[in-house]
Design a protein that fits this description.
Number of helices: 16
Largest sheet: none
Distance between the termini: 28 Å
Radius of gyration: 21 Å
Order of helices and strands: HHHHHHHHHHHHHHHH
Oligomer: single chain
Strand content: under 5%
Shape: globular
Amino acid sequence: MAALGGDGLRLLSVSRPERQPESAALGGPGPGLCCWVSVFSCLSLACSYVGSLYVWKSELPRDHPAVIKRRFTSVLVVSSLSPLCVLLWRELTGIQPGTSLLTLMGFRLEGIFPAALLPLLLTMILFLGPLMQLSMDCPCDLADGLKVVLAPRSWARCLTDMRWLRNQVIAPLTEELVFRACMLPMLAPCTGLGPAVFTCPLFFGVAHFHHIFEQLRFRQSSVGSIILSAAFQFSYTAVFGAYTAFLFIRTGHLIGPVLCHSFCNYMGFPAVCAALEHPQRRPLLAGYALGVGLFLLLLKPLTDPKLYGSLPLCVLLERAGDSEVPLCS
C-alpha cells in the first residue's frame, strides 16, 4: 500500500493512455486522490466497525450475553450508517455509478433467488467432507436430524441464544455489509475488480486482530499460542473474505455472501486432523477431496453472471471505459 498513488494500485484508465482518463470520464478528481479517498474510506469503516465493539466498558468476556447484547447495539448502528461512507466517497471522488447506491451495494431483486441458493450450494459442496464427518459423528439419523432442524421449538431456542444470533445472523450480515457491500464499490474503481477481491479481505482479516487483546486480557492461553491463533485466523478470514468478495462481484447481490458467511460460521474450520484419525478415514478423506474438486469445477458455472442479471460493479467499471473485466463474464 506504499504506492497508492503510483503503479501499485492502478486506476482503470492508467494502463491504457489512449483512453480518456477515468477522472475525466466520471467527472471526478485525479487518480491519486481517488485511490487515497477509497483506501482511507475503507480504513475508516474497518476502524469504526471494530471500535464499536469497545465503546462499552466491561470486565466480562466477549461471549457473555450482556456483552453480546451491548455489541449488537453499537455494531448495528455503525453498520446502518456505513452506506453514508459510500455516499461521501461518491461525492468526494465525483464517481457516478450509473445506478442507485443500494443496488451498487447488492440490495436488488433481479436474480435474487439464484443469488441466495447457488452460492450457498457451492459452499456446501466445498464442505462436503466436514458435512459427512458431522453426519457420521451425529448419534441421530437423517430423519431425526431433519425433525430437530425444522422444529419451531429449535428455532425459538436459537433466537434466544445470544451467541447463535451473533454468529449466524448479526456478524454475517454486518460484516458482509461493511467489508463487502460498502468497501468493494469504493475499491473497484481504484484497483480493478481482480485486485479488489484480494485487497478488500485484508481489511476484513486485520479487523479480527482485536481478538488478541481480549484473549490476552482474560489470559485464555499463552502469548505464543494467542499470536499463532491470530495469524491463522487472519489467513483464514482473508481467504474467506476473498471468496465472498468474489461471490459479491459475480452475483451482484449481498444475500449470497451473507448466507455463506453464516453457514461457514456454523461449520467452523474443517477438522482435518480429526478426519485423519477417524475410524472411517478413507471415505471421509474421499469426501474432502471430492468436495474440493467439485467446488473448483463448479465455481465459475454456478457464479456465471448471466444467472444474476446486470452486475452493478461491472456497470460502474464499464462507465469508466474498462471493457476488459474478466470477472464480469
